[in-house]
Amino acid sequence: MNFLAHLWLADRTDTSMAGAILGDLVRGADLSPYPSDIALGIRLHRRIDASSDRHPLLQPLRAQFDPGTRRYAGIVLDLACDYALVQHWQQLSREPLPEFCARAGTSVAAAAPWFVQAGARAPTAAGFSELLLSYGEASGIDRAVRRTAARLRQPQPLIAAAGQWPRLTTPLLQILPELLQDLQQQVHTLRA
């Protein structure tokens, strides 16, 4: 799951939107410097990532990646899931996507000091909202791939793997509602 899916899950489970994003940025197990709601969001983000990485609905899609690019399948599938989520948005949320993205951007920006503590730049509400909205366009996913690849020592294998994401869209659209429902249930169970 990428940012938009993590935020959708945080919203549905009444957990920290900032924590849902910080889960990708905070390193280590010691979350004591963070407020309890953000720390919970970080832990849930990590559990969601671990669960989705091995989820049975995604395994057939992972198997479609060439052996040389399969280690990057998780990144590509995460981004493709956000694209599919935008395509399904009206079925999964009563709140219009631009309103959700603006609300999420405001929530994430309000936690800017915690992003700085994690070693990241302080997000702005407008910038983060724009990023989320970009996931509904192929060009937005391609930009996200390039940004992610730029942080790797060897970016080319990720870029090669990402060339496969458009063909994964149709199967992702078919499984996404069930996948999100299952992950939402897991979050509720973890919080109980």
Model description:
It is built from 11 helices and no strands. The protein has 192 residues and is mostly helical. The model has no long low-confidence stretch (mean pLDDT 94). The relative contact order is 0.18. Helix 5 runs antiparallel to helix 9, helix 5 crosses helix 11 and helix 9 packs antiparallel against helix 10.
Number of helices: 11
Proportion in helices: over 70%
If you average the pLDDT, what whole number results? Answer: 94
Distance between the termini: 22 Å
Give the low-pLDDT segments.
none
Rough shape?
globular
Order of helices and strands: HHHHHHHHHHH
Q: Structural class from helices and strands?
A: mainly alpha
- How many strand elements? 0
Beta-strand proportion: under 5%
- Main sheet, how many strands, which sense, barrel? none
Radius of gyration: 16 Å
Secondary structure layout plus pairing:
Elements: H1 3-12, H2 17-22, H3 36-53, H4 59-62, H5 73-92, H6 97-110, H7 112-117, H8 125-134, H9 138-150, H10 156-162, H11 165-191
Helix pairs in contact: 3-11, 5-9, 5-11, 6-8, 9-10
